[in-house]
Write a structure and sequence with these properties.
This protein is mostly helical and 412 residues long. The chain is 82% helix and 0% strand.
Length: 412
């Protein structure tokens, strides 16, 4: 994990959580939709309905996080609270991931998935807010990019083992999938231990006799502060639209390919390629951030994603899915890492939890809208490709809004 700038131990431990939780992200974008397709197929659910139900479940999870995230993030800003709340959300996610091995009914499976995903996304609010505690503003772009980079490559370890078990082991589908879920849960928990042992909250709000009540008050102040900091508001508005496309592609890629009839092997291997491509490109964007403005790099990523989404509208061949996987890998880590560090630089560090809670509203709220609209559009028109066109429109809006945000943050 060392390049030109040597990482501190705490920075490495923070990055390790990306390595751990990315295993669950990899499952959500690959194996879990395929297994859900298997369970849905047992009940003769059509491919269009399968894609829609998967989109609705993903939307529900992100909506719940958008509702509770800001409040939890604000509470976590209180002295001594961030680490315990992070630990609880992480453990619920780990247990939920392992529990996916239990249901055989597709509806119950989706219910467990929603719980696990809500906990996973909640943990990321506190994890992102830790960035201000584990590193300096000058190193944020680099550390954030390395987190995503090592998360991509690290998640491949349990994923490849899971892939071998699911595709090659002479076991019933439910047994092999159960082993994969438990394996990834153990990986997620195991690599998080160093961070839990060593993290200390540096930036915080004073302790209060009524932390929950006061968290609502502080959260209200955050929204009031945005009137005085329009640079933060316009960035968040732009982020809402462009990250919508990113998260929706992550959530729906495998479900979309599966609905088009591509083989499970093709989908899994193509998305594995995405991880390997994303690793060097995330590091590359981290290095480039020291040579050109962060905002310019984010704009490049948004434009690239717009082209990717337009290409996906007509996608109907396996080789096109492979090409899409490579292109997504080139820009996925960059746009996520740079957005996280960009936001960290323009907010007050002592309010990082509450601000990242709001950040999560705009990010997860966008993901809710994207997956919901793709599913609904596919059902209304009966066309999978028409559903995907929604993603391209979100990126176009994001480009224009981000341009306005850049004018207010010229030095970032």
């Amino acid at each position: 994990m060392e390049g030109k700038t040597k990482l501190t131990k705490l920075e490495k431990f923070w990055i390790l959580y990306d390595v751990g939780n990315s295993a669950f992200t990899m499952l959500v974008s690959t194996i879990i939709p395929i297994y859900f397709n298997h369970l849905a197929g047992l009940k003769n659910i059509s491919e269009v309905d399968y894609l829609a139900y998967w989109g609705y479940a993903a939307s529900l999870a992100t909506l719940l996080v958008a509702i509770i995230g800001p409040v939890l993030g604000t509470i976590a800003d209180t002295e001594g609270y961030k680490k315990p709340i992070f630990t609880i959300s992480m453990m619920v996610g780990v247990i939920g991931c392992a529990a996916l091995s239990i249901p055989t009914n597709w509806l119950l499976f989706l219910a467990v998935f929603v719980i696990a995903k809500v906990a996973y996304n909640s943990s990321l609010i506190f994890y992102d807010a830790m960035l201000n505690d584990v590193t300096t503003p000058e190193r944020m772009d680099d550390v954030s990019s390395r987190g995503y980079a090592w998360g991509y490559i690290g998640s491949c370890v349990p994923f490849i083992i899971s892939l071998v078990i699911v595709l090659k082991a002479p076991l019933p589908m439910q047994v092999s999938m159960g082993i994969a879920f438990v394996l990834n849960a153990l990986w997620w928990a195991g690599v998080t231990i160093p961070l839990l042992k060593n993290y200390k909250q540096i930036n915080y709000a004073p302790k209060s006799e009524h932390p929950i009540r006061d968290s609502f008050s502080r959260l209200g102040h955050v929204f009031q502060d945005m009137k005085e900091h329009p640079n933060v508001f316009w960035f968040l508005l732009a982020f809402f639209f462009y990250i919508d496309g990113v998260y929706t592609i992550i959530e729906m890629a495998t479900a979309f390919g599966s609905a088009l009839g591509f083989s499970s092997t093709t989908l899994l291997l193509a998305l594995l390629v995405t991880q390997f491509v994303a690793f060097p490109f995330a590091l590359l964007f981290g290095r480039l951030s020291s040579r050109m403005p962060n905002g310019r790099l984010i704009r490049i990523c948004i434009i690239a994603y717009t082209a990717i989404a337009l290409f996906a509208i007509q996608l109907d061949k396996p080789w096109e899915f492979w090409l899409l996987a490579v292109c997504v890998g080139m820009f996925q880590g960059g746009i996520q890492a740079l957005s996280r560090s960009y936001f960290s630089k323009i907010i007050p560090p002592e309010k990082s939890g509450e601000y990242f809670g709001v950040y999560d509203i705009f990010g997860k709220g966008a993901a809710f809208m994207g997956t919901m609209l793709v599913g609904a559009m596919a059902q209304i028109t009966g066309s999978l490709n028409t559903g995907v066109s929604v993603i391209a429109a979100m990126f176009v809006v994001g480009i224009f809004l981000f341009g306005k945000a850049l004018k207010m943050n010229r030095d970032v």
